[in-house]
Amino acid sequence: MEIWINPNLESREFVKKWKSLDLLVSDLDKAVTGNQALLVILRKLIRQPYQVFNPKIWDATLTYIARGQSNAWKKFDGYFLNIKEKGKIKKKYTKEYAERKLYPGFKNFLSLLPNDTVEVFLTRNIDEVVCAYLKATGFDDALTENFDKEEGIKQLVEKYPGRKRMAMIGDSPEDEVVHNYFAWLLKKNKIEYYCTVNVGSINEKCDISLIKPNFNPLVEFIISNGYNIK
Fold it and tell me: Cα–Cα distances in Å, from 96 out to 50, 54, 125, 153, 189?
């Protein structure tokens, strides 16, 4: 099984909503591409293996074990990603590199969205990485180095106040705060609806989950459930 559909989801209604989205918010790492934050760390250690003896590396590692990846990445960023290091990262992360690293089918998936949909990344990753993915995907905006997704989604909704039909692509329980905020907006009649997609595992709170990092099953699902019906 490559795609899980929530049993409570009306497939054609979902597609009808998808065809009218006006704001798409997506995580980056493990949602539309591999774990780039982890790759940045590994490349640093490969270039400078002596860093394994640096207590700050172990502080970040223990933080990862105790408090999760986002908190560990925040520490790693603060400890090691100075201007010189970020310059090296920027050279690595070109548009062409990012295009090669996108999950299969993601560009086709984007082509199914309305032309006027605002597409935004909400991610903990740094500008030097995210900029390449903005160019590769054609996304309109990004909120980078975000370690509080609840506050981040509030900022984005305030930035685009005319948007009432929303969707979120995520990959972890951390993204559920976005779902919860969308649900609150819907309850208050501040938006018309929202859709949710999880990548990499089944999240029963989402409309659709992609079991593998591949958007082609979602593309097929949307097309086969009335996408071309006026």
Answer: 31, 34, 18, 29, 42
Query: Which CATH code is given to the segment(s) 3-34+95-224?
Result: 3.40.50.1000
Mean pLDDT, range 15-39, rounded to an integer = 91
Reduced to 3 states (helix: H, G, I; strand: E, B; else coil), residue 149 is helix
Alpha-carbon gap, residue 113 to 117, rounded angstroms: 7
Lookup: tokens for 221:
């699902």
**Residue entry with tokens 């309109």:** 140
CB distance 111 to 81 below 8 Å: no
Which residue intervals of the chain bear CATH 3.40.50.1000? 3-34+95-224
Does the pLDDT value for residue 199 go beyond 60?
A: yes
Do the Cβ atoms of 104 and 70 come closer than 8 Å?
A: no
Mean pLDDT over residues 24-28, rounded?
A: 96
pTM: 0.86
